[in-house]
Design brief:
Elements lengths: L1 E6 L11 H5 L3 E2 L3 H13 L3 E6 H4 L3 H11 L3 E5 L5 H14 L4 E5 L1 H5 L1 H5 L6 E3 L4 H13 L9 E5 L2 E4 L26 E2 L7 E4 L2 E2 L18 E2 L2 H12 L5 E4 L8 H13 L5 E6 L6 H9 L2 E9 L3 H6 L6 H13 L3 E8 L6 H14 L3 E6 L7 H9 L6 H7 L16 H16 L2 H10 L3 H16 L1
Parallel strand pairs: 1-3, 1-4, 4-5, 5-6, 10-13, 13-14, 14-15, 15-16, 16-17
Antiparallel strand pairs: 2-9, 6-7, 7-8, 11-12
């Protein structure tokens, strides 16, 4: 079998300020999910596999069609986020336009949230539920042998007029057993970040599953159980990436330091091998301390992204974000004192939140004084407790995400939590928050003092404009 894994364009992406998609406005990053699957296929089968990152390559649908005709795959795997559903469907339509005999398999977060709606897309032949490395490879084996589909767990497929769904049996426990992402199949030299000092950059995932219960977060395909790779395995991947010229790494774990000892071990392994690398992590202020911060800095950690979310204890409680504001101030100060760049995430317009509480959150962001801040309007996304709560309370009048999954429309606009404040009022407060934070003379002077050359100045200006635009 010959498989082509496609990362669709984002021509019709739903406008959202989810951090993962805002990050993409300040850089270009590899489709790790597809590259993991490709790496597993390469190591564990004789099937051919290629990856097409249409975003990094800047391909439109005419060019995608040309690529499919050129590569002549037997099956195309397409990664689907709810926010990029329309482009995923357009990509599948392009595949079937080339040949109706090419099978289409969807996977990714959206498939796990709305499997029935996804398998009913006319172009969909198969769905992969949960983690895709083993299941997609087994699907290729079964299709090649023309038998054994029912022996694969976690797949959905069409059998004439019937829809067949096999049981989902769990998650991969030993993450060290999974081969590294097949970066050499991607245009890895094109990946960059406007915040990075070197290019090319790449993302890495050192763990799967987040044990925290934040109201606004949903990871249905990865589960809540924290599963981690060993420090040696993580640093082996860093070394493998160094061989092809990658020098900066963004660790894209939900919370990098859930296991503090493992975080220490990764730092120590980098130092033991004498690797000169720069890297970012995303984490919580209650999973780090001064000792770990010092070790992170020594091992090359340049930037830490902290999810703070609110500047009032009342709203933190509502969001099930069990952190202490005093501790947040302490950790931000220690992080900055060590010379690590900080980025803080905040949300406004959460359940029960008033205008006064939002203004206090903006004040708190200024008090923390991170190097960068990202404000977003609280938006109930599918498969989150926040969305369920909104429907239950009647704040959300209908299950609009399911309606979108059933009948995607290009003009779709997600609803906000308009309990105390309207969309217009929240949008005005969002603009006010960005202006109040970034237009401070002291902030501007501080950032100008850090600039080493004109290119860095232009990079920072572009990054700021892209975040605000998104």
């Amino acid at each position: 079998m010959k498989a082509l894994l496609i990362y669709p364009p984002k021509q019709h992406m739903i406008k959202t300020n989810v951090p993962e998609f805002v990050d993409k406005e300040t850089g270009s990053y590899p489709p790790l999910g597809l590259l993991y699957i490709a790496g597993f296929i390469q190591r564990n089968s004789s099937h051919e596999v290629e990856v097409l990152d249409t975003q990094a390559e800047g391909l439109d649908y005419v060019q995608i069609e040309e690529k499919i005709r050129e590569k002549r795959p037997d099956i195309v795997g397409i990664q689907v986020f709810t926010f990029t559903l329309i482009d995923a469907i357009l990509t599948a339509e392009t595949v079937k336009k080339v040949s109706n005999n090419i099978l289409v398999c969807f996977g990714g977060p959206h498939v796990n949230i709305y499997p029935e709606e996804t398998i009913n897309i006319p172009e969909a032949d198969f769905l992969i539920m949960g983690e895709g490395e083993i299941r997609f490879t087994r699907l290729l084996d079964a299709l090649d042998k023309r038998e054994g589909l029912m022996d694969i767990d976690g797949i959905i497929f069409k059998d004439n007029s019937r829809i067949i769904r096999t049981p989902l049996r769990g998650y991969i426990e030993d993450l060290d057993s999974i081969p590294f992402p097949a970066r050499r199949l991607s245009p890895y030299k094109k990946y960059y970040s406007l915040l990075a000092k070197q290019t090319p950059v790449t993302t890495m995932i050192t763990s799967r599953g987040c044990p925290f219960r934040c109201l606004f977060c949903g990871r249905p395909h990865l589960g809540k159980k924290f599963r981690a790779r060993s420090a040696a395995n993580v640093v082996d991947e860093i070394e493998d990436s160094l061989k092809i010229g990658i020098r900066e790494f963004f660790f894209y774990d939900d919370t990098f330091s859930v296991n503090r000892d493992r975080a220490y071990d990764i730092c120590d392994e980098i130092l033991k091998r004498g690797l000169e690398v720069s890297w970012d992590v995303r984490t919580r202020i209650d999973t780090v301390d001064e000792g770990l911060l010092k070790r992170l800095k020594k091992a090359g950690c340049e930037r830490i992204h902290y999810g703070v979310e609110a500047g009032t204890k009342e709203i933190l409680n509502v969001l099930c974000k069990d952190i202490d504001l005093k501790k947040a101030k302490e950790i931000f100060k220690k992080t900055k004192d060590l010379g690590i760049t900080t980025l803080a995430y905040f949300m406004i317009g959460s359940p029960t939140e008033t205008k006064d509480q939002i203004l206090r959150t903006i004040d708190f962001a200024i008090e923390l004084d991170p190097d960068f801040v990202h404000f977003s309007i609280t938006t109930p996304f599918p498969a989150t407790e926040l969305y369920r709560l909104g429907l239950e309370r009647g704040v959300l009048k209908k299950d609009y995400w399911r309606e979108f999954a059933s009948e995607p429309k290009k003009n779709f606009i997600p609803e906000m939590w308009e309990e105390n404040l309207s969309r217009d009022e929240l949008s005005a407060l969002l603009k006010f928050a960005y202006k109040r934070f970034y237009a401070r003379p002291c902030y501007i002077m501080k950032e100008l003092a850090k600039v080493r050359d004109v290119r860095e100045l232009l990079r920072k200006i572009k990054a700021g404009l892209n975040v605000i635009k998104s």
